[in-house]
Amino acid sequence: MAVTTAAGLFYFGWLLRELGPESLGAWLAWLALGMIACLADLGLRESLVRRVAVARGRGDDGQVVALIDTTVLTVALSMAAALVAMLALAPWLLPPQAASASPWLVGGIAAMVWLQRVADVHAAALEGLQQYERVARNNVAAALVGVATLLVVLPHGGVDAASVGLIVQYALAGSLHAVSLSRSLQGQRGWLPRRWSARLAREGLGFGLSVQVAIGSFLIIESSTKLLLARQDALALVAFYDLAFRVGRGLRNLLVAGNRVLVPRLARASAERPPEGSALPASGDVQTLYLRSFEVLLLLAVPVFSLAFAAAGLISIATRGGIDPMMLVVFFLVLPAWFVFCTVDPVINVAMGTGAMRPLVVAHVAMLVLLALIMAAGTVAQGLGLSLGPPPWQGAATLAAATLSVVLPSLGLLAWHHRAQQLPLQRIAPLRGAVVIAWAWAVAAAVHLLPPAIWAQGLGWLCASVATVLGLRALPGWTLLARLARRLGGQA
Question: How large is the angle between the packed helices 198-231 and 44-57, nearest 10 degrees?
Answer without folding.
Answer: 150
